[in-house]
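Structure, all two chains, one model.
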Amino acid sequence: AQKITQTQPGMFVQEKEAVTLDCTYDTSDQSYGLFWYKQPSSGEMIFLIYQGSYDEQNATEGRYSLNFQKARKSANLVISASQLGDSAMYFCAMREGGAADKLIFGTGTRLQVFP
Amino acid sequence: DAMVIQNPRYQVTQFGKPVTLSCSQTLNHNVMYWYQQKSSQAPKLLFHYYDKDFNNEADTPDNFQSRRPNTSFCFLDIRSPGLGDAAMYLCATSRDQEPGVDNEQFFGPGTRLTVL
């Protein structure tokens, strides 16, 4: 069965510093997709970045980049130049195979950015 | 702006009193999802619609039902809410899955349900 593991329940980072949020996954599928979502205290899940299993380059979206290590089955999120507004829960998710894009979520990491 | 809208944002109901949560989308996406998220936990998929095709998760209680009268709207009905059903309910949408293409899910702001 597919599984996502986020081992960091909470992380702290100083403003303007970079931070890495860990995510490992387990799947027997050859084709899969990995997503990161941000959930502020307001509750809405905000899509951040995506990495396909066949993508040779690590995905980047502005200050977000994904450190994808396929052999290790890890897809860590790197946030550069942290801002106070980055304080939120961060979820790693994987697309499950099938007719629709069903996502399996990890348990999340709460990031706190301090001045 | 195209978006996913959920109403109400906060819902209070009494133990055993039926409640309906609504979701609408202007994205014209084929797929709509309902997730339950309890405090400090990951979202848990309850069911999803692929167009009008309803797909229930195996562990979703019978107490939870859904309706999708058209592409834009989807409803979550909780027939007899229990205290354990207090949670955030998230609606999401996505486009058709095309071969070799992954489509992200777009989430609404959620409805926080309190059961008294």
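The first strand of chain A starts at residue 3 and ends at 5.
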